[in-house]
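Exercise: predict the fold of this chain.
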Amino acid sequence: MSIHVHGLREKLRYGKFVVTAEVEPPKGSNPQSTLDSASRIRPWVDAFNIADSPMATMRMNPFALGHILQENLGVEVIPHVTCRDRNVIGMQAELLGAAALGLRNFLSLTGDDCRRGDHPDAKGVFEVDTVGLISLAQQLKLGKDKTGHPLSSIPDFFIGAAANPGSDDLPREVARLKKK
């Protein structure tokens, strides 16, 4: 018997092969060019990864673009969330806002150093790292904020993490992946 599954989480749970494509948000407020590019490959992808100011270059918020892609293309999105630009209050607020917009997937990343990007004098926040971000999201999934205050509704996040198999220090990378 063949099980027909929908949704990224379910496809992965059942061991289905999934294809994602990464899109960069525009450096401006009009998402049309990104929407046009994504729509051309939409038939072949299960979800779109949306970078969060990649290489520390300021771009449109990945949750905003994710909502636009989901609504216009009917495809799941995986916004990236970095620790570079937000403190724990901001991270929690953005995650809850994303859940309110129907975004349940995200990829947790530490984020690139600001000196690499187009705003080299900006100050990175990095209040928590990826492990801390995942912990925050898990706490929200349990119905409480970081300090234990109850939420009025509980988000259903599907949290992803990344690893670098080409790391110069692979044992350290593997140990870090286990923590994630």
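Check your answer against the key: The CA atoms of residues 5 and 11 lie 6 Å apart.
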